[in-house]
Amino acid sequence: MTETILRFEDLGLSNGTLKAIAELGYEAPTPIQARTIRRMLDGTDIIAQAQTGTGKTAAFALPIIERLDADSRDPQALVMTPTRELAVQVAEAFQAYGKYHQVSILPVYGGQPIDRQLRALNRGVQVVVGTPGRLLDHIRRGTLKLDQIRTVVLDEADEMLDMGFIEDIEAILQ
After folding, report:
1. Which of 21, 43, 148, 149 is deepest in the core (most CB within 10 A)?
2. What is the reported pTM?
3. Quick one: residue 45, left, alpha or beta (phi over 0 = left, psi -120 to 50 = alpha)?
């Protein structure tokens, strides 16, 4: 039987993260957050499935933020999403959760001028959130280096597979 987590304080999150999530009105971890955050903090690989609105983004974003090397401007986490709308939403969530960590996040997706993305990548970002096509474009251009990536998230992986992104995902993971 697993221990029931009733408070975010019980998950091993830093004071800055706890302050940010309290300011967002989060009172207690959802079941997906309670089951995954501590394991991700420990470096365990996770496969999770939960309904929309259950806090999946926080379940992976909070431990990613906690594990970032603040002194490095290299990409350390890569989050793949099926749509630009979700990429923007996830990047905004990272920004809110990482408010007290000065986390640098960049959403990359098609339909946005690539020069803005190129400038941001050149300055350095810690978390890259994007659609498979645009991520692969940056990798092939040599503008996105993945050698310091410690965490990869396939957000809505089932939808990405349904949309035919399997080859792009495999190429990115290689």
Report:
1. 21
2. 0.93
3. beta
